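The protein record filed here.
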Amino acid sequence: MEFPATRLRRLRRTEALRSLVRETRLEPSALIYPLFLVPGEGVRREIGSMPGVFNLSVDEAVKEAESAAALGIGGLLLFGLPAEKDEQASGGWAEDGIVQQGIRALKQNRSVDSLVVIADVCLCEYTSHGHCGIVSRDGDPSNGGGYEIENDSSLELLARTARSLAAAGADIVAPSDMMDGRVGAIREELDAAGLDQTPILSYASKFASAFYGPFREAADSSPQFGDRRSYQMDGANPREAMREIEQDLVEGADMILMKPAMPYLDVIHAARERFDVPIGAYQVSGEYSMLQAAFAQGWLEPQRAMLESLLSIRRAGAGFIVTYFAKEAAKALG
């Protein structure tokens, strides 16, 4: 039937009606809160380009986790800034590494049992050069400086890092490096160590994006030379993203994560239509900082814009969202 018999506005008249027929819903339990762990005690250092986000010592991170759990947030994604860096990223797989310490502290705290603890698996935070793999200085000069990020030799360190994090108690390990074959190498390493019940959340389509800038300040992980375009994906290639996801699933990934989120909503949607696995998306640092800058200028209404941005990611097909807005959004969702 057509207007005037059909009036779509009838179901928009009150908040109760709008809530009843709402097609897409946000819930705190679908939000993942990233934390950046640093050595020391009582450290709570705000990140200049990310208002409201902090580098935290383990004791302060536990306090943040308690707050997140009380708000009903679903989980944490942990990153680490080691006291020292080297070319072998030894801080990433050391038994007493900063993230390993953080995981153990969280797992000893019963008040945060509701949180899924996800450990990022990458080398960039731990390498002296800031790249996500082993660097060969004898690379092809035509790629911009006579270096190459070695793929196969990096897999051993990534697998060792994942095993160390899982052994410390991580509920999920999440490789974000974009080396070919890393999911298979990690799955083999975990299984051989008796950690076969630890799921792998693969950053299956991680694009070489301008929106990562603030994160590199937060994690002190900027490359000391070159860039990451030889291993992170070209933003123009959504079909290649589907191949990356499919390959990771073949190698043993249990879940996939899309990164960034808002500039790649089409990729999230395409993945949701094609793959029947849990899919998450990462609202990355640049997305967060861009909105915070607009809030500071009074150009956008903070709560409405924050929730609308998250709803767009959820609507595209993400079952869960990694976001620095997790606590604020959980409070707004009540």
Summary: The longest strand covers residues 31-37. The CA atoms of residues 73 and 113 lie 11 Å apart. The chain has one domain: 25-333. The domain at 25-333 is CATH 3.20.20.70 (TIM Barrel).
